Amino acid sequence: MFNKGSESDYSGSESMSGPSSQPSASKGSGMPSIISADLKVIGDLHCAGDIQIEGTVEGDIKSQTVTVGEGAQVSGSIYGQTVRVSGNVKGQIEAQSVTLAKTAKVSGDVVHETLSIEAGAHLEGMCRRLQPDGKKSAGDSKVSDLKASPQGAPKATASIAAGSAKAGSGENGAEKPTAS
Predict the structure, then answer these.
(1) Per-position DSSP letters for the chain, written without gaps between them
(2) Does the predicted model carry a pTM greater than 0.70?
(3) Domain definitions of the chain by residue range
(4) How do residues 62-84 score in pLDDT, each as one tens digit?
């Protein structure tokens, strides 16, 4: 049992209680923290790893990667490196990479470096591009100043249906749908 030569007989019971089996958000364990469909959270969520929302969150979310599932409801701002939305979000999204799936419904501004919007997604708000150095395109503060929001900025409303609309460019740089 405690012989040096019997390591091949090791049952692995120590690894179950050792530090390698403990999930650690700071190490990026690969498993997201999940808010399940039957869970409602009132308050802010902060995570160094990944968060997957399937239920309801009333508050701000700050994480490395945020995934908002198809049936999820978020009322608050979302901040992260990568954000994928398939559900409903009422609030600002600020991330390096933002993806709005065809089932997404977003009411709020999107601040991004890269933005992908699938046909069928609904977006009501302003889209602003982050510069690669982390500055907002309008010359606002760094990304770390996550609570800053512009006043009086033009808004864009788009509802993209497969084959029914093309994105155009408005005179002030905001995107607007045009019928085909």
Answers:
(1) ---GGGGGG--SHHHHHSGGGS--GGGT-SPPEEE-TT-EEES-EE-SSEEEE-SEEES-EE-SEEEE-TT-EEES-EEEEEEEESSEEES-EEEEEEEE-TT-EEES-EEEEEEEE-TT-EEEE-EEEBPTTSBBTTS--BTT-TT---SS---EEEE--TTTEEEEE-TTS-EEEEE-
(2) no
(3) 30-125
(4) 999 999 999 999 999 999 999 99
